[in-house]
Amino acid sequence: MQIITSKIDLEFDQQHVWHPYTSTINPLPCYPVESANGVYLTLEDGRKLIDGMSSWWSTIHGYNHPALNQAAKNQIDKMSHVMFGGITHEPAVELCRKLIAITPEPLQHVFLADSGSVAVEVSLKMALQYWHAKGQRRPKFLTVRHGYHGDTFAAMSVTDPDNSMHSLYKGFLPEHIFAESSERGFYEEWCESDISDFKEKLNNNKEQLAAVIIEPIVQGAGGMRIYHPMYLKRIRELCDEHDVLLIADEIATGFGRTGKMFACEHAGISPDIMCVGKALTGGYMTLSATLATKHVADTVCSGEAACFMHGPTFMGNPLACAVGNASLEILMQGNWQQQVLSIEQQLSELLPEIGQLDCVKAVRWLGAIGVVELYEPVNMAEIQKSFVDAGVWIRPFGKLIYIMPPFIITPQELSCLTVAIMRSLKPQ
Ligand SMILES: *Cc1c(COP(=O)(O)O)cnc(C)c1O
After folding, report:
1. Is 389 a catalytic residue?
2. From the alpha carbon of 215, which atom of ligand 1 is closest?
3. Is the pLDDT of residue 5 over 70?
4. End-to-end CA distance of the chain
5. What pLDDT, on a 0 to 100 scale, did the predictor assign at position 427?
6. Is-contact 214 248, C-beta < 8 A?
């Protein structure tokens, strides 16, 4: 058992504070972080860790960023929040203008919400209202295995049934349709048979399908899989052919992470509805958006309700929008492209060496994402400590050790991450 000393009452934390996917009976220790700057997290005891996680895909420009700090400070002196019903404000209008400018052309209407899961709920509700307005009953969604779309109920219902333990909620969770996910990696040769199960499921269920929902190119929390762009291209074609809407969940992949501004661009497709979140505010606070084409938005609003039936209390929060604007401005200057490309090149050089280890099943990379898949699940307590001792912050899950560092990471810092992974896996 490791002892961590802290000013924070860590015993209270262990006994009363619930951390994500953590037992209350037997919780592993949590590391107290005091501050963060650039790519570094500073622990309370003064140790500095290179952050390999971007706080779950979000902190793309690094922590404590002067421009993002300034945007928050400027906005907080004007107003932190104001309701969005019947009221509008510059930060929200500007953010929506930028989102429309950088996402695929057909997406023209933006619905702001408070987290990724809610953006997914919103996208599913839009699809249901769309068909209701057209006088059709279409209560089902089609998705693929190994996906992750969030932890709220509708989002969970389209998340991989085994990973999200659908069995726990049987009778309450709506049952949707799952096709086999693509077996073909991003850099492998495309094989048409990869899409056959999806094609069959779409064909057999098309009359009752409201939409297909999928994470473009990279399946994140459901297995860190990086698949062939043709798979996504075929899905778009099949949705068009059978008149089913396509929802792209870009919450993890959006804003440059995969080497394109949005992962859909790898396949040259445009969805009918797109969800973004995570990096939207550069990791400062929670905000998400669901974008729809004019056709989808207008159809939704031509129905019985004459509007879209959703309105979170903190919709369009000015503080979050102001920081989002500052983050998008940095992205729109374009340096991220070179940053992400260099990360990708370096990962392509460093990861294959890790792939040689006996305990490693596969390594994969794309953009600023690197994945090491093992044969056996990691020992979380041990490996977490070994990473912290090595001066890095990497949080594996199950058989997966993965990194998605802030775009500003230097080559030296990035190799510290891969060296730490290598050392944690090498037999002593
Ligand atoms: C994280 C994630 C979500 C959920 O976002 P939250 O902000 O955690 O609710 C949904 N979809 C994908 C692809 C994600 O990676």
Report:
1. no
2. 13
3. no
4. 20
5. 73
6. yes
Determine which one of 51, 114, 194, 249 is catalytic.
249
Out of 40, 63, 130, 148, pick the active-site residue: 148
**Is residue 40 flagged as an active site residue?**
no
Catalytic site residue 199? no
Q: Which domains does the chain have, with CATH numbers?
A: 10-64+334-425 (3.90.1150.10), 69-332 (3.40.640.10)
pLDDT tens per residue, range 360-374: 999 999 999 999 999
* Residues contacting ligand 1 via CB (< 6 Å): 115-117, 120, 148-150, 215, 220-221, 249, 251-252, 277-278
Residue 227 annotated in active site: no
